[in-house]
Amino acid sequence: MSQSRSHLVLVPGFAGFDILGSVSYYYGVTEVLRKAAAGAYRAPLSVHCFANLPTASVDTRAHGLLHWLADRFRKGVFYGGVGTDQRDCLHLVGHSTGGRDIKTLMLLLLAATEQGRSVYGVPAQTLLESICSIQFLSTPHRGTNLAHVFRRWRPGVMSTAGVAHGLLSMTGQKYASVTARLARSALRTLGQSDGIARAALDTIDRFHAAKRDGLSMAEARSEYFNVLCWLLNVAEDTDAFDDLDPLSSSGTPRRAGGHSRRRLAVSSVAAWRRELAVCAESAKKTGKAGLLGAEVEEDLSDYYRQKGIALRSIVTRAKRDPGGSFLGIFSLLYGITADVMGRPKVVEALGPSCAVPWLDDPSRSERLTPEMNDGIVNSVSMVYPDAAHSILVDADHADVMGHYRFIDPEDGDGADPTYGGYDLLQSRSGFDQSQFEKLWNSIGEFAMASDRCTTASRRRPAVVPAEAPAVSPASASAASPASAAAAAPASAAAASPPSAPAVTHFRAEPSDPEGGA
């Protein structure tokens, strides 16, 4: 292979899809990265959207992600020459529960690598050595109070999904679509034109093809059965509620799988080999990757640094709008998530209060307390491994995915008219297009600053200003997220000529694994 490539792998959260009806999970992300492609990136960048299972356990989802990655190495979509500088670079970004999936994936890879094993037909070392950075976006590392409350409602969630599946099955494509159009018109009359309800109705409307040609009808059938399959998965498996509850089933704070927390000498690879071998054996017997090294999760960041993997967390926080509707979806979810008073065990499990620097101005920080949240996850739970490796964004849980405003699927935004943008939580956080671009440019810059797998000639800028020395891979991984992100644009802008290859987007759905769009 003559040239290495860089891949940004976007892992979805709790809902677990890339595309569902009219909703694209990471809406507008690729377009933001493409705008900066001519100057910001030192390598051809491919954006891959992984479609995971909704509401399934983190263990199941992590195995799904591992299988997906291995499959792309086998097919040559990713190239992994072990021990060479020609390997492709993988940069993992996990939103919400997707971040937990990535952490469990890393536990699997670390154990398999120490034992010299393969995973799904690919040497684990190949995958591990190709991962250059991990970024957690609104990830509940220690769980969220919302899951603690909703955990007791699991049967109701499963029943609701089952009833919705049954109703759609009985109604059929055409009549479901007609009903959705009528309901959507009623919402418009009432002044409710966006949010989760609008996204659901737009999706159902696509079940019936306006054109009666063969392709349009086939696409409508596909939309219909994709949603039925998604609902069936939710109706059958909601184990994620258990994984996201900050307390174990016994009502005690989660501690390393129920064991007392202890520190390992992670500087000793031999110690890790022994520990991971024991954990791997336990996982093999039980079939649960969640037991695989779970008691040393807090120390994984040290091991990542040994492997040269850059790491940071993006913390989101939104405030309840005093002028907003009391019965609005964000107001309700925010109130439940913030209601930790009288629950000392939950507060303890979520993590201590701490000050986290802002993305807009790293010199300024804000102190986070357990009740602060983004409508879904308590903000202190997103801080990992510590405040120095975290940055704060004023946004709700869905804003950072690109769903902070309504864009009609029929109109599009000049980028992809197939899917719509939805202000899913309607928090009125003030998060807008400029902040969305700043956030995702920062994510792209952080990834490229840690691109240690590309050849030296491609990492070296064509012109390096005397006052801005180039950032080495080692220093990039050791530096704080804010300094790494700030240092990247200066050298990266000079590294790529205006004719640099455009960012390529790979959807999860197409049968052709190399079918970029």
The total of helices stands at: 17
Profile the largest sheet.
7 strands, parallel
**Remind me, CATH topology?**
Rossmann fold
Strand portion: 5-15%
CATH architecture: 3-Layer(aba) Sandwich
Structural class: alpha/beta
**Helix and strand element order:** EEEHEHEHEEHEHHHHHHHEHHEEEHHHHE
In short:
Keywords: Membrane, Transmembrane, Transmembrane helix. The protein is an alpha/beta fold and 517 residues long. The protein has 17 helices and 13 strands.
Verbal overview:
It is a single chain. It is built from 17 helices and 13 strands. 42% of the residues lie in helices and 11% in strands. Mean pLDDT is 80; it is low at 256-270, 291-295, 455-501 and 510-517. With 517 residues, the chain is α/β, with parallel strands linked by helices. The radius of gyration is 22 Å and the shape is globular.
What would the keywords be for this entry?
517 residues; alpha/beta; Rossmann fold; seven-stranded parallel sheet; two-stranded antiparallel sheet; 17 helices; disordered C terminus
